[in-house]
């Protein structure tokens, strides 16, 4: 028996009013495998999905592999310098062609040595000359639409998808002085099989309400009461963001509560006294501080598990600092305190969603971003809800 009923769809309406009257989304949409499968089609198969930084593949022939909506893909720098993305599934017998990263001139499936170029075009298919009607041009690795934004690589399964950039325009003024396209990125790391739904992750990341409650002491410099929501979400937007002020200039999410890395030099004084926290659903959580930006790429595995790739961006001068490695370790150690505290909280939230006592709660004004996120979700749920 399906949970995708008209009654469930109608019930979402109560979660998209003003925060003062709205209630939280139904617990079942965080725990149901059927609902995640619906989201895979309604959201992940149609929206722009972040897969990493373009700086990861700076040279022609550089590539990395990742998983998008359960499918393995290749992201490569083609001979013309463009970034391409395409399936990693060989079009002969379905074997994954590569599952690593590196540099090459072509991709060769180890099973039967079908080979593909850096755009996914089939180059060679041994011993197929007796196969009637076989034409190599008919068997490329399926391509994905691709767009670069602020140095991030986004892909879309819909080759005719509308451009992503214009839908993120409301947030761009808050990033202009960071010049993120040219920022320095350290290697990312991935946490696997985290035990909560992808939406729990998104809600926690942009939740100003818990800022210096769960993260007491270490985040007292960036308290909940200094949360602000400068832009209301509109149906044309693919970003939900808030700002959070500091009690002192150049705050930092570490044990000193001060920025440790070089400050981005073009920031205004106002920008040096706040962070921003942004959601670009359904995959990217992104934030800024005076000395760094940080990102979380979320990949759902089941209704109750996700993988999360975490990375940091610094001003290009940062690695020239004589104590860069030491300062980075200190900075990362501070972030890990937040990660551990958030992991405990989100795991318990997911557990609570399964309880018979779970209910649809009420929002604080410091959770206005959640209502905006609900609106983003509901627009897409309605558009793709199964017709009975």
Topology:
Elements: H1 6-11, H2 33-44, E1 49-53, E2 62-68, E3 71-77, E4 83-87, E5 102-103, E6 107-108, E7 115-116, E8 122-124, E9 145-149, E10 152-156, E11 184-185, E12 189-194, H3 198-205, H4 211-214, E13 227-228, E14 240-245, E15 274-280, E16 284-289, E17 292-302, E18 305-314, H5 324-353, H6 368-384
Antiparallel strand pairs: 1-10, 2-3, 2-5, 3-4, 6-7, 7-8, 9-10, 11-18, 12-18, 13-14, 14-15, 15-16, 16-17, 17-18
> What is the quaternary state of this protein?
single chain
For the record, what CATH class of the largest domain applies? Answer: Alpha Beta
| Series of H and E elements | HHEEEEEEEEEEEEHHEEEEEEHH
As for the CATH topology of the largest domain, it is: Naphthalene 1,2-dioxygenase Alpha Subunit, Chain A, domain 1
Beta strand count? 18
Mean pLDDT: 97
CATH superfamily of the largest domain: Naphthalene 1,2-dioxygenase Alpha Subunit, Chain A, domain 1
CATH architecture of the largest domain: Alpha-Beta Complex
What structural class do you assign from the helix and strand content? alpha+beta
Uncertain stretches: none
Helix content: 10-25%
Supply the number of structural domains. 2
């Amino acid at each position: 028996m399906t949970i995708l009923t008209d009654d469930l769809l109608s019930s979402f309406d109560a979660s998209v009013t003003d925060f003062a009257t709205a209630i939280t989304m139904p617990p079942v949409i965080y725990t149901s495998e059927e609902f995640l499968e619906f989201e895979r089609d309604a959201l992940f198969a149609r929206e722009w999905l972040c897969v990493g930084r373009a700086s990861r593949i700076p040279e022609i022939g550089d590539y990395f592999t990742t998983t998008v909506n359960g499918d393995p893909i290749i992201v490569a720098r083609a001979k013309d310098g463009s970034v391409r993305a395409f399936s990693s599934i060989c079009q002969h017998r379905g074997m994954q062609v590569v599952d690593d990263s590196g540099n090459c001139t072509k991709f060769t499936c180890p099973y039967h040595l079908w080979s593909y170029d850096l755009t996914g075009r089939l180059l060679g298919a041994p011993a197929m000359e007796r196969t009637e009607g076989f034409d190599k041009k008919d068997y490329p690795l399926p391509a994905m639409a691709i767009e670069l934004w602020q140095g991030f690589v986004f892909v879309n399964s819909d080759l005719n998808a509308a451009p992503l950039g214009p839908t993120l325009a409301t947030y761009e003024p808050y990033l202009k002085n960071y010049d993120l396209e040219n920022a320095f990125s350290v290697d990312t790391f991935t946490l696997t099989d985290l035990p909560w739904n992808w939406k729990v992750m998104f809600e926690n990341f942009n939740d100003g309400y818990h800022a210096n409650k769960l993260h007491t002491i270490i985040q007292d410099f960036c308290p909940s009461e200094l949360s602000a929501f400068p832009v209301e979400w509109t149906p044309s937007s693919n970003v939900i963001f808030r700002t959070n002020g500091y009690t002192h200039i150049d705050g930092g999410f570490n044990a000193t509560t001060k920025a440790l890395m070089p400050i981005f030099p073009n920031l205004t004084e106002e920008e040096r006294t706040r962070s921003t926290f942004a959601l670009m659903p359904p995959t990217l959580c992104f934030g800024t501080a005076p000395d760094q930006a940080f990102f979380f790429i979320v990949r759902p595995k089941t209704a109750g598990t996700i993988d999360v790739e975490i990375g940091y961006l610094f001003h290009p001068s940062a690695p020239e600092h004589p104590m860069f490695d030491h300062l980075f370790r200190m900075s990362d150690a501070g972030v890990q305190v937040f990660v551990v505290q958030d992991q405990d909280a989100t795991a318990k939230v997911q557990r609570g969603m399964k309880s018979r006592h779970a209910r649809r709660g009420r929002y604080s004004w410091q959770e206005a971003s959640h209502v905006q996120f609900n609106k983003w979700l509901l627009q897409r749920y309605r558009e793709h809800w199964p017709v009975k």
